[in-house]
Amino acid sequence: MNPLFRTAAALGMAGLVLLGWSSARADGGQQTFCVDRPASFDPLFKPSGCFTYKPVEGGVTVIGHALLGSEYLGPGGSVEARVNGTSCGSTTVPGANGVFVLPMAGGNSQAGCATGGDRVDFYLDGVLADQTLDWPSAPGPNPRFLSLSAVNDVAWYWFDRVAIPAARIGTRVEALSNGALCGEAMIGGEEEALGTTRRPNERGFLRLIVSSTKASCGQAGSLVEFRIGGLDGQTAVPWRPGVQRLDLQVQADADCSFSIDARDATLVLQHVAGFIASTPCSADANHDHAVNALDAQLILQYAAGLTGALPE
Fold first, then answer.
1. In the Cβ-directed half-sphere of 261, how many Cα atoms lie within 13 Å?
2. Per-residue H/E/C for 200-239
3. Same structural domain for residues 105 and 158?
4. Which domain holds residue 210?
């Protein structure tokens, strides 16, 4: 295990605390900070775990995930902080998911580095990241959590949802643009999410890449559409580079499970009868901007195989 990340047991604690815990300085001025967070499929989510590092006196330590291009920054990848071109701290990624710990010097300990209000830029393997940090007027010993991304040529999509019934693990999600298949991902369970506290019935994916370097894909202004489990999705977004969350839905998928079956029809009828105010996800099977018994009928016909597709 990398020495930056020690389990609570190894540190002699009963478990990770929810908001954070900082040890007294020991081992040559090192300190340990632990944090426990709910799981998330957000690739820029704040890391969880225990982090041991040696802070710079009067400086700031940043902990986060680093994304470069279409991947997490790999082991040995560099993360550097600069202020007006002056390097004020650098580190390398030790392991998986691009997690880094970056102690930075301030202007009181290194000439040319930040003082209160100055902007800090970050570089991932020499590439400028999208995020910046405003140097605090009173830096403290505890770290700041900031994930970094430099994904100038790709749209990095992610998705999560907590619903009952949960979406089926292994459901294929395809991204299409101009009729071309531009990227795909699989719906995963909560064990694939980042974070330490799992949420039952959480489903999603960390990464679906649509790159501008692939033919017919990633063109400014073009629409990216999504197909989910072979069904046409209800989501279309203009392509743009960067990390973006998707709100994925399937036509007539009333229970948000990414499948169309009798449970969806049951929810529609419960809504029509006034037993529930609305269905969890869109249940308008025929695109008439209303949810009624006709939608339930169309859903049942489709689920039974009597029709090959729902109305477009």
1. 8
2. CCEEEEEEEEEECCCCCCCCCCCEEEEEECCEEEEEEEEC
3. no
4. 154-245
* Spatial separation of the C-alpha atoms in residues 278 and 8, rounded to whole Å: 44
How far apart are alpha carbons 248 and 54 in whole angstroms? Answer: 43
- Token pair, residue 225, equals 């559409």
Rounded CA separation 297/32 (Å): 60
Q: Is residue 35 domain-shared with residue 146, that is, in the same domain?
A: yes
Q: Hey, which residues does 35 pair with through a beta bridge?
A: 49
How much is the average pLDDT of 105-127?
95
Same domain, 199 and 257: no
Structure token digits, residue 295: 């939608």
- Cα separation, 172 vs 83, whole angstroms: 43
How many DSSP H helices and E strands does the chain contain? 2, 19
What's the pLDDT score for residue 100? 97
The pLDDT of residue 195 is: 78
